[in-house]
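Archive entry: two folds, one per protein. Generate the first.
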Amino acid sequence: MLLQAIHDIATMESGKHENHMLRSLDYIEPLLNDFNSSSFCESGKYKINDEDFALLKQIIPLHGDKDKVSDNLYVEALRDADALDRYLQGVETKEIEMPRLVNAFSQLGIYIDFEKSQSMTNHGT
């Protein structure tokens, strides 16, 4: 859940989408350090450990390569979730994202025949 929430932080913070996957790394370290030192993490129960932090730093820069398939299930899950999120936000779905979008919907038990549906650029907006 944390991964999905912060993977596009560079776009949110700067308003610029270009190269956001790598730029996100500049934002997540201070954010997660602040989180770890917050009162919410005093008990240590919710603290993000070094191993998880390293995993986040490995995965986030790879989420934009929707045309590639990774052996890392976290990378694949983030790519699928990102395609679904873009679709639900009304962002034009590129052809390269279609297999990921179909996979994300099917994982949720939703089966859509996109060929019969309305234009992918006007899906409910």
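Generate the second and append.
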Amino acid sequence: MTRIWIALLVSMRSALAICVALLALAAGPAAGQEIRPTLDKIKETGAIQLGYRDTSRPFSFRGSDGQPAGFSIDLCTQVAGGLRESLKLPGLRVAWVAVTPADRIAKLVKGTIDLECGSTTITFGRMEQVAFSHMISVDGGSLPGHRRLWHRHGEGPRRQARRRDPQHDHGEGARGKR
């Protein structure tokens, strides 16, 4: 099952990379700011400004070598490579710009960054300011009172509670005899 999941992620990387590129390319300018399409800016400057987060593992973080790393970083690197080919800019420079949860949307709107490579949640308020790619990750909510949603096959919360309960131990250890 793990192999299938990894193969699915790898095959989706190219499609997701293009979608992530659309996030920044469709972002509108701030009020009173010159309308300058992102692709035109990248062509003129020969550089793409990629925003990243320092501490948003596993999507975007500063690696042990001090460079941006993570799943979103990999996707953004592929986007830059795709733009390098499609815009015929073999010398396209990639500039990494640190962003925070407080300033990432503002930096996109102002044009400080061309693309945000992080883990930004899609909200209606943000959709009014910038465009989003297709989702690259889905995070479910948690149920009140449940600390552990992932467990070994066949061991739901009731069985785990029974194993910890001395009344169900029958003097045979935590697992009992089968």
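Annotation attached to the second fold: The chain has a mean pLDDT of 74. The radius of gyration is 22 Å.
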